[in-house]
Amino acid sequence: MAKLILSMDGLVLKEFTLGKERTTIGRKAHNDIQIDNLAVSGEHAVVVTILSDSFLEDLGSTNGTLVNGQTVKKHFLQNNDVIELGKYKLKFVSDGPAPAKAVDFEKTMVLRPGALRPQPGAAAPGKPAGAPGSPAAAAAAPAAPPPTPQRAGALQLLSGANAGRQLDLTKPLTTLGKPGVQVAVITRRPQGFFITHVEGANFPVVNGKTLDAQAHALGDHDVIEIAGVKMEFFFKT
Q1: Nearest Cα to 25, choosing from 6, 11, 8?
Q2: Which residues of 65-74 are buried (b: 16+ CB within 10 A; e: fewer)?
Q3: Phi, psi of 38 (to 5 degrees)
Q4: How many Å apart are CA 224 and CA 214, to the nearest integer?
Q5: Taking a C-beta distance cutoff of 8 angstroms, is the pair 111, 162 a contact?
Q6: Are 228 and 212 within 8 A, CB to CB?
Q7: Which residues pair with 26 in a beta bridge?
């Protein structure tokens, strides 16, 4: 399980395990990681952890958030990344597999005008495996059962500037909403598609019901409302 190691001037102060989907960082006492220093905002940043992936988001802090010396708003955390908040440092340590490619959250912000583009079709099926050797040897080898394919999902925008457009949910993480107003993330997992609140005072609404901070499984033809825009989730056939 991933963790953050808090230090100052090279002295390790405390370790925090990222066992929750949302881990808040800030000066106020209600934060999961409290750093009582005036350089740190009351609610400075949040780390969202979904399965083996964690990403950091600055919550509009006064002095900003740095990762490896660079100011960030959103950042996919990788092993040994160092988050800097004033004089304090939080080292991200993960024993899970490194992500193959960091997700560009700005490119997946589907409510941004012009951001929606049809995704290319499914990849061509792989070549059938042929056993080397004689036909008898090939016949003797038992055939492995084919893996159960994961159902493909998509969103249909029902309102807003992009009404009528469709987004195929082909990435592990797809963010929705408007930064600074309301943001949620849809994750593609082996069990299906889940929506999780990330940012904003208001939580996403699914089929007229306001969600909480936990991940919510999406069903076929669920209607999602976020940042004033409605969209329909559906499984592709």
Answers
A1: 6
A2: bbbeeeebbb
A3: -65, -20
A4: 15
A5: yes
A6: no
A7: 34
- What pTM was estimated for this model as a whole? 0.49
Q: Comparing C-alpha atoms, which of 170, 167, 155 is closest to residue 122?
A: 170
Tens digit of pLDDT per residue, the chain (237 long)? Answer: 889 999 998 899 999 999 888 899 999 999 999 999 999 999 999 998 877 778 888 998 999 999 999 898 888 888 899 999 989 999 999 875 544 444 444 444 445 444 454 444 444 444 454 555 555 544 555 565 555 567 889 999 998 778 888 888 888 778 888 766 788 888 888 888 999 887 778 899 999 999 987 888 999 999 999 988 899 999 987
Alpha carbon separation from 21 to 47, 57, 178, 181 (Å, rounded): 8, 13, 20, 20
Amino acid (one-letter) located at 215: A
Dmax (CA) for the chain in angstroms is: 76
Tokens 């070549």 — which residue?
127
Tokens standing for 104?
């560009």
> Distances in Å between the alpha carbon of 43 and those of 40, 63, 83, 231?
8, 12, 15, 30
CA–CA dist 181, 177 (Å, integer): 8
Instruction: Write phi, then psi, for 139 (nearest 5 degrees).
Output: -70, -30
Type of residue numbered 59: L
Distance (Å, whole) CA 77 – CA 89: 14
